Amino acid sequence: MPSDIKMTLKTAREIKKLSQEDAARLIGVSVDTLSNYERGKTFPDVVTLKRIEKVYGVSYNQLIFLT
């Protein structure tokens, strides 16, 4: 994916065709935690963010975190 494209966590997950349940399992967080990340209620720590980058195939710079 081009590195200049910006997307939300939910969009990045949907591009990979992952359900919240599958994505949460691959990232190593609960579904509730992932849902909170996607809605901007909480934000992942650096270790979790690195796992998100790997699972979704995106870099931090491509992600938009909504508040």
UniProtKB/TrEMBL annotation:
<protein>
    <submittedName>
        <fullName>Helix-turn-helix transcriptional regulator</fullName>
    </submittedName>
</protein>
<keyword id="KW-0238">DNA-binding</keyword>
<dbReference type="InterPro" id="IPR010982">
    <property type="entry name" value="Lambda_DNA-bd_dom_sf"/>
</dbReference>
<feature type="domain" description="HTH cro/C1-type">
    <location>
        <begin position="9"/>
        <end position="63"/>
    </location>
</feature>
<dbReference type="Pfam" id="PF01381">
    <property type="entry name" value="HTH_3"/>
</dbReference>
<dbReference type="InterPro" id="IPR001387">
    <property type="entry name" value="Cro/C1-type_HTH"/>
</dbReference>
